[in-house]
Amino acid sequence: MKKSLILMLLFFAVLGSTIAQDATPADTTYWRKGFLGTASFTQVSLTNWAAGGQNSISLGGYMTTFANYAKDRNSWENYLELGYGLIKQGDADFQKTNDKINIVSKFGRKMSQAKDGRLYFSSLIDFRTQFAPGFSAPGDEEYISKFMAPGYALVATGVDIKVNPSFSVNFAPVTGKFTFVNDDRLANAGAFGVEGAVFDTDGVTVLTPGKKARAELGSFLKVNYKKEVVSNVNVESRLEMFSNYLNNPQNIDVNWENIIILKVNEWLSTSFITQLIYDDDIKIAQFDEAGVQTGAGPRVQFKQLFGIGLTVKMGDKLKK
Q1: Could you say which residues form the signal peptide (predicted)?
Q2: 282 within 8 A of 239, measured Cβ to Cβ
Q3: Which range is least confidently modeled, 115-129, 168-182, 184-198, 286-300?
Q4: For the whole model, what pTM was predicted?
């Protein structure tokens, strides 16, 4: 995990330096590009503290960068989002609090030649995975996820409605969703919705290995809102929904992210991030009060991050 955090911070530095050198005024190029990165650190140290508690250290990093092209009736939008966080409490090992890689590329062709046209034919590619292995609890030896286990790829074709510069709706009635589990143990267990292995009667010997990929055909809807709602307060909300035509289309996959960044000054900011996920194919283990697993089933997943720290912003005004 420490290596992953170091690599991510190096990426911040290199990418930020590149954008700063290459940025050109918006009126002399068809490209708009920018970078926003935040880093936070929290420490609690207790000595003979009568009220009790534990020493703790937390580290977090988050960045977004974009490169958007627009000329005549064509548009091409590219977006990268990375997030990584760690926490250490007491004598326990470091544990992940955030781990995200998201790459999006969308091409659009305006249906009308009108300058203020809002309707586009669009094709979209969306890829997601994570940096490092994830564990249920500190000290666990077996990971429950890792890089490309899972990995998700979405290929969608449809229409994009740009209601205004801050709000857009993308609907793709022809969408392929691909889930990758590039790990033998997780694939054999049928993790993240792939087809699991066939075992012998002993429950250990694998007769047929589990599938490492799963393909779905369905429709995709993405609603995106991004705006500086008041001075120095930026809000972004992304709601994504996918329905599988061939298997329980009524069970809609949901991924809803909200990002609020409050700028304190040129270098300091407060960020609040939430993410809600529901995927009927992801089974979450359930336990009784004694800690014994009683089953597994789909559940709403929710994550909340709050941080105060250093912020670096470069390039044109950030938008998608």
Answers
A1: 1-22
A2: no
A3: 286-300
A4: 0.85
